[in-house]
Every structure is written in structure tokens, then in C-alpha cells.
Amino acid sequence: KKTPLGRRSWKMLYATLRDLVLYLHKDEHGFKKNQLYDSLHNSIRIHHAYAEKAVDYTKKQYVFRLHTAEQAVYLFQTSDSKELESWVDTINLVAASLSSPPLPSGVGCQRKFQRPLL
């Protein structure tokens, strides 16, 4: 969501990662009860997603960036560098392990047509 004059508002949320969905909870009680914050609008699908440390973001410490397949970009701040590395590694591992492989390209440079192996 765009903010006026490019300003971001940061919210304290609890996050859980299940399969290929990152669920965001309003507080620790919602986290423990497994209730979603507001609605399913506060969940992020991480299939074909990529997380990276936001080294160019200097306003806050321990921030990582999550790029999704839908071309959305999210910023998350963690409490320390160890937690930051843990989130980045876990998201990338889950996204790479559980996402389906990319489809073969439609046009190739082979002279003879071959059906792709499934």
C-alpha cells in the first residue's frame, strides 16, 4: 500500500511460516491461538519468493526484504542479526523446496523437437 510522501508505517506483528504461507498475527495471543490478524489479507504466499538482507535500507537495523512471485516487496525488521539470518534462510529454503519447478521454455534452439520429460 502506498503511503503519503513515501513514508512507511511499521507495525509490530508476530509471524508464523506454514508450508508456503507466512501468516501475520496482531499479537502473541493470536499467534498462540493461531488466529489470523484481521483476515487472510494478512498472509503472504511465498511460493517462488526470495528473501534477502536489506543492506541498502539504513533507517532501521536488522531488516530483510521479501520479494514475492506477485511482484510485491515487503520489509520486515527482526530483533537481532541471528534472527534476521534465520528468517532469510528459512524462507528461502521453504520457497525453494516446496515451490513447483519452472515450466520449460516454449522456444528452444534444438533442431529436433523433443517432448519434455515429466
From TrEMBL:
InterPro entries: PH-like_dom_sf (IPR011993), PH_9 (IPR041681), PH_dom-spectrin-type (IPR001605), PH_domain (IPR001849)
Pfam families linked to this entry: PH_9
Domain of life the protein comes from: Eukaryota
Residue ranges constituting the PH domain according to the UniProt record: 1-96
Alphabetical list of Gene3D superfamilies matching this protein: Pleckstrin-homology domain (PH domain)/Phosphotyrosine-binding domain (PTB)
GO MF annotation: an example: phospholipid binding
Main location: membrane
Entry keywords, A to Z: Cell membrane, Guanine-nucleotide releasing factor, Membrane
Location(s) in or outside the cell: Cell membrane
Tagged with keyword Membrane: yes
GO terms under cellular component: plasma membrane
PANTHER family: GUANYL-NUCLEOTIDE EXCHANGE FACTOR (PTHR10663), PH AND SEC7 DOMAIN-CONTAINING PROTEIN (PTHR10663:SF376)
Protein name: Arf6 guanine nucleotide exchange factor
The organism of origin for this protein: Parasteatoda tepidariorum (Common house spider)
Classification lineage: Eukaryota, Metazoa, Ecdysozoa, Arthropoda, Chelicerata
